[in-house]
Specification:
The two termini are about 60 Å apart. With about 675 residues, this protein is mainly α. It is built from 33 helices and eight strands. The protein is about 55% helix and about 5% strand. Strands 2-3-4-1-5 form a five-stranded parallel β-sheet, with helices on both faces. It has a three-stranded antiparallel β-sheet with strand order 6-8-7. Helix 16 packs across helix 17, helix 25 (about 490-500) runs antiparallel to helix 26 and helix 26 (about 505-520) runs parallel beside helix 28 (about 555-570). The longest helix is centred in the first third of the chain and has 22 residues, at about 140-165. Strand 3 (about 135-140), helix 7 and strand 4 (about 165-175) form a beta-alpha-beta unit.
Amino acid sequence: MAVPAGLRPFTPAQESAARLAGRTVGNEALLLALERLLLDAARTGNRPHTLLVGPAGSGKSHLLRVAVHRALVQASVAEQLVFIRFDEDALGLSRLLDVLTEALRQLTPARSGAAGLPADQYEAALAGALGDRLLVVLIENLDRVAQAMGPAGQRDFRDWLQRSDRVLVLATAQWPVPAVSEPAAPWHELFAISQSDELDLTQRRALLVRLAAESPDRGLAGYLATGSGQARLRALATLVGGSPRAWTILADCLTVDSLAALLPALHALLERLVPFHQQLLWNLSTVEQRLVRALADGPYQAGTVAELAGQAGVSQRVAASTLGRLADSRIVLAGKVAGLDQRLTWYRLREPLLRHHLQYRSAAEQPLPLLVQLVKAWHLSGGATGLPSGSEPIAPAGTGSPFDVTAAQRDPQAVLAAVRFWGHDSSDGSAPDGGQAGALVELMLLALRHDWRGAVDLVDRGLLDSKLLGLGRTLVTHAHAQDPDQPAADRFELLLGQAAEATAGRTHAILELVAACWDGGLDPRRAQQRLAALASANHRGSDRFGSDRFGSDRFGLDVQRALAYWTGEAGDPASACELAARLLSGNDDQHLPGAQAGSAQQVLQRNLGRLLDSTPTEATPAGAAEQAPVELEPGGLIGLLRAALAGSAEALVRLPDELRPMVESARSVAAKAVGGHP
């Protein structure tokens, strides 16, 4: 039974050539060159054996399939050329005889290929099957074939191609093949080498828009045309890279909602790519796997031999030789860093998606969600374009949620609606007495206006629980005794403090949140401290909360968001970024309601802007004298970003590539601000 296309891993071999042709974006020059090569071979018999080199998923197989499909439209090609394929999963190709056997099997299936033929007659049988036609041999993963053949088999294959004037080889490989690139190797100068390029941002968007027309989510194509959609697409491009295969797979699982949230879109892609990454990792030795894992774990994308050896639990000698093999295989990149000790070589994974895969599949906490939220916030704020997405600019000064703004303005009446909302939000079953906070605040406001009849009526209507009636009467008494010439905001603050101190559970938590934000209007640091204490006490299960702790309901999420907001207002944008990003990433797989999500996104954008604006005007110049090793600021990914912004060359090389544009942009802006050059 055929597996539906949307449920199986994407590979060009499973798609029709016509469908691939309709999905082709990028590498136009290379595709045209391949098409012309085939046309020329059909007309003149020229046989320029060609090798396409590029990383896995860069579109090599796709290009070959489409080039053949387009060329076969010409009658001369269909008449003069015959094609056989050795796909990426082809097995048993270790001798020239294996190649000839498979060629005969594909050309003469009715006669069972070469069954019964003596080995010395295979070439003649193949020539007879071809007649006047030219055989085009399409070989995927030529590097594997070359390795399986060894030098003797490689020489036999070369000699056959030189004896025959009716064979053209078009092959692919993920990296340069030693049998082709080394001067003394059997296939040296046998192949013309072409490089397949990854997609640039314009091409990624064009491919996604083209494939969005096939998506079950009919709104996806329209969303990609909006400023918000394009900003998220730029963020996704930063995280995914330019692999055509990755973008084709992504189009099959992308929706408006997952793109808007971004992290679910990346998770969906990584889930579809699990078979590819697993196979890559399974092909590595145990020590290679350990070193790859060491390069993927945590916030640092690069490390030295000594560091990686320690993490992998192997000697430095073993680590150095193994990392060299991984570099030869193009799995890791190695290099020196200007401004640092030139005796050190820094290693990092070549493919960001492999790093993301290992973090996504890890049981330990990893910085991938935080990385995604930082990239998203930067692009929604304008990012490399310098232009906000239109619908989601950086929040202006003083902007949090509507409640934060009104609380900061210290307007007693403005907080009542929010308090009533929180009090009655019992979606997680944890707020049995939450409505009492709203009744108490309303009672305070009536008393502040000296509306004693309204206060008495509120009590008579039973809006206050019997356990709080005494507190209600006390608050009214205190309000009556207050100096009427004292500002209403100050009088409300006194009553609010008394009520918060005298209550427990959800009622106390709501009143404490109101009081903390009220403090923020005059002292943001005090607000941050009160909110941190509130969240900590709830998390520890303080006796004050009993069984009435708040968690993932809207009020609990608003406490976390308010803590992030006031942390930033108190002058700690780095911690504010981390708090907001963690909230947006969905604590323990929770999902924020729309209002909190929008507010937390604004908090993250605003504080990321503050963090980037704090970049020194003089960054470490490239090529400067070697620096002493830097003691990196603790704090994971945010600490690493802050150190890189401060000019640390070591922090910059360790920083994930996805965040480097932020540092470069911030340094450029800082340099221009003082009349210098980026």
